[in-house]
Design brief:
Number of helices: 21
Largest sheet: 5 strands, parallel
Helix content: 40-55%
Radius of gyration: 24 Å
Strand content: 5-15%
Low-confidence stretches: 84-129
CATH topology of the largest domain: Rossmann fold
Oligomer: single chain
Distance between the termini: 41 Å
Shape: globular
Mean pLDDT: 78
Strand order of the largest sheet: 5-6-7-4-8
CATH superfamily of the largest domain: P-loop containing nucleotide triphosphate hydrolases
Number of strands: 8
């Protein structure tokens, strides 16, 4: 890819991010790569078939329009699924993360092949039989950098990984949630590697997409009973990206599997990009069971943790490229300015390595500023949760949160409840039915009435308008 194409691709991604919003962009487009631009067509790739089909069904025109804004001559977007790289030789040291020099010239802002390269080291027979998702040999506990935002998640994952067959299960399920690129997959694969290092327990790592395809394939081949029995014979089931689990029958089967494993004392570990209560597409029974375990959030990466990750990645690169060196002031600059996630940090190291090796130049601060400028994004607004809104509104109006969720119709409760519903609709991406469910199981028409009521009042009632603006400021500062 030429520098011109790379710059153009960066601008297209910026347009796409502005068009769909940060949350949607992170969920569906963060892992999209530019493969080539030829005449009137652009070839893009994503790591999974599910992402490909979803983007084609829901965002094809949006992607094309963003490209046409940069290149009016483009009339076609080709989207393909890129295959994960397979290691050419057995892994020598699984504790050290590696940067693949064969593809370092791509210098993308994400780790090569989405850090899901297939490991050549053996895994359990159950993993092969069920078609477990690929494991990356770099994603182990030894290579995981610990900081304030992920200490609890790391400790809980280690506790699970070090368990033995027959031991009482302490956290079940263990549910880890975080935004894109904050280390969820790293922890889940570390649990899998640690569990499969011995033969005592059967540990299976599956993405939600892989679970869906496995279940659908079993239905088509009339082997669903064997599929279910094999799943329920697992000692530790690890499910990644649960937010992508779709379909009523698939969710029902997942719920049955989850219940069967937990009731049998088997361990379940799950990761998603949001807490169970925010997974609107999941059945209530599934959300309830997930929330009944240990739910741990991995927060954003602090500057100290970002610096630690950068040093770790540079050290692993130096193991294969002895002359590669990044001055301390460059590392500090990167940790201070690249704030969104670990993938951007690793992408920055990839770029510095590529530039240094291909141009035979040392890494300097000026060079780093040029190479990573598109990774330095404006600080995204804080994500406000419905629970935050209920808490702040209850405090402002001197009522309890349970009052807001109750069926009480007294004036001192009705107005705060309507204000809270209005804020939930205007400050979050939640649907009217979801907001109603979170306010004591109310119908979506009740929420719509509240929203319209407050919208009409704030245009006429100066006092109420000021109260609402004050609440918004409090939520932006506290969330």
């Amino acid at each position: 890819m030429t520098n011109t194409e790379q710059d153009r691709w960066s601008r297209v991604k910026g347009r796409l991010r502005s068009s769909v919003g940060e949350d949607v962009y992170s969920s569906w487009f963060a892992r999209m790569d530019l493969e080539s631009v030829h005449d009137e067509s652009v070839h893009l790739s994503v790591p999974t078939r599910f992402l490909k089909s979803w983007i084609q069904a829901h965002y094809a025109e949006r992607v094309l329009s963003c490209w046409q804004a940069e290149m009016p001559e483009v009339h076609r977007i080709d989207l393909s699924v890129r295959t994960a790289m397979r290691s050419a030789a057995p892994v020598k040291d699984m504790s050290v993360p590696q940067i693949d020099a064969r593809r370092v010239e791509r210098a993308d802002s994400r780790p090569t092949a989405e850090l899901r390269a297939v490991a050549t080291a053996p895994v359990s027979a159950s993993h092969d039989a069920l078609g477990g998702s690929p494991l990356d040999p770099r994603l182990t506990f030894a290579s995981f950098v610990i900081g304030r935002s992920n200490t609890l998640a790391h400790a809980a994952a280690r506790q699970v990984a070090e368990g033995r067959r027959g031991d009482p299960v302490m956290f079940n399920p263990l549910y880890i949630h975080a935004g894109v690129g904050l280390g969820k997959t790293h922890l889940l694969q570390a649990v899998t590697w640690a569990g499969n290092s011995g033969s005592e327990r059967k540990v299976l790592y599956l993405t939600a997409e892989k679970f869906m395809y496995g279940f659908v394939a079993a239905l088509k081949t009339q082997t669903s009973l064997a599929f279910k029995e094999a799943l329920r014979g697992i000692d530790v089931l690890v499910i990644d990206d649960l937010q992508f689990l779709q379909g009523k029958s698939t969710q029902a089967e997942f719920c049955h599997t989850l219940n069967a494993l937990i009731d049998a004392g088997r361990q379940v570990v799950i990761a998603a990009d949001r807490p169970p209560s925010d997974l609107e597409s999941l059945d209530d029974r599934v959300r309830s069971r997930l929330a009944g375990g240990l739910v741990v959030e991995m927060g954003s990466l602090g500057e100290e943790l970002r610096l630690g990750i950068l040093k770790s990645r540079v050290a692993s690169a130096r193991a294969h490229h002895a002359s590669f060196d990044v001055p301390e002031q460059v590392l500090e600059y990167l940790s201070r300015t690249i704030t969104h996630n670990g993938r951007d940090l690793e992408g920055a190291v990839n770029r510095l390595l590529a530039h240094s090796k291909l141009n035979n130049q040392p890494v300097t601060l000026d060079m780093a500023e040029r190479e990573v400028r598109d990774l330095i994004r404006p600080q995204e607004p804080k994500r406000i949760k419905i629970e935050d809104i209920q808490r702040v509104v209850a405090r402002q109006y001197n009522v309890s949160r349970s009052d807001l969720l109750s069926s009480r119709r007294t004036a001192n409760v009705v107005r705060p409840r309507q204000v809270a519903m209005y804020l939930a609709k205007t400050l979050t991406l939640r649907s009217l039915p979801e907001i109603g469910r979170r306010f004591g199981g109310r119908d979506h028409t009740t929420v719509l009435h509240a929203v319209r009521k407050i919208e009409a009042l704030v245009t006429k009632d100066v006092s109420l308008s000021e109260e609402v603006e004050s609440l918004k400021r409090q939520l932006q500062n506290e969330s």
